[in-house]
Amino acid sequence: MTSFDERDRHGEPIDRRAAIQRVTALLGGVALVGGDALLSSCAAPRSRALSSVDAGDAMFSAADIAFLDEIADTILPETDTPGAKAAETGAYMALTVRDVYSPENQQVFLAGMRQLEEECVREHGVGFMDATPAQRLALLERLDREQKAYMDARAAARRGEPSPVPGVTADSPPHYFRLMKELALVGYFTSEIGYTQAMRYVEPPGRYDPCVPYEPGERIWAPHA
Fold it and tell me: Tens of pLDDT along 164-211?
């Protein structure tokens, strides 16, 4: 599992397929829950702005977008590069849930937003938007551990093995925080900020260098479509 303060520099806005493959690696090599749907969306028209979910949307309100921005920014905070909120990752998350997710996963995600808020109130006495950065991080780290155990148990059940988590079966829906984490990572690393600032980017055609020296900790080079 990748901790939230480890800013692995992956993704790009043109070749979402490559970004999804890299986010899969960030999540421990396990296929994204919404992977097939996210890949199919690569061929969808890109003319509609992400801001189209901000006003008058039946599924997500402006307050919901702000809520998702704060969740994503806790997962991918500002360091030497802008964080997920600056990349408007919340709008990406909402648009993807609305236009790409199945109705079943939409319900999991929406119910998960309410549950996350309830968990924050129960754990810290305040809602997520009013919680301190430390409180937010502690909550999301706990939820991340829970989703990992839950998804591992579901995978075991699907392999025909005994589920280590009571009540989790092969037919159990994905954990809501797994969906949130996936979309936060994909949304950030396919954004312009994630691609051109969190990674090193040279506009094509550029020069072809088949082997470039790399030192641990350096930003990786952004690939091209």
Answer: 999 999 999 999 999 999 999 989 888 888 877 776 666 665 666 667
Q: Residue 203's Cα: distance from chain center in Å?
A: 26
- Taking the C-alpha atoms of residue 210 and residue 207, their distance in angstroms, rounded to an integer, is 10
Q: Are 178 and 144 in contact (CB under 8 A)?
A: no
In 41-191, where does DSSP find H-type helix? Answer: 62-75, 89-99, 103-124, 133-158, 176-189
Name residue 200's beta-bridge partners: 221
Averaged pLDDT, 124-136: 98
| Summary count for the chain: helices (H), strands (E) | 8, 0
Residue 47 has what pLDDT? Answer: 37
CA distance 58 to 216: 45
C-alpha to C-alpha distance for 23 and 204, rounded to whole angstroms: 24
Q: In a 3-state reduction of DSSP, which class is residue 4? A: coil
Cα–Cα distance measured from residue 50 to residue 45, given in angstroms and rounded to the nearest whole number:
12
What is the percentage of the chain residues whose pLDDT exceeds 90? Answer: 53
Regarding pTM above 0.90, the answer is: no
The residues with which 221 forms a beta bridge, in sequence order, are 200
Which residue is listed with tokens 């919340």?
90
Q: In 170-181, which positions are buried (b, 16+ CB within 10 angstroms) versus exposed (e)?
A: eebebbbbbbbb
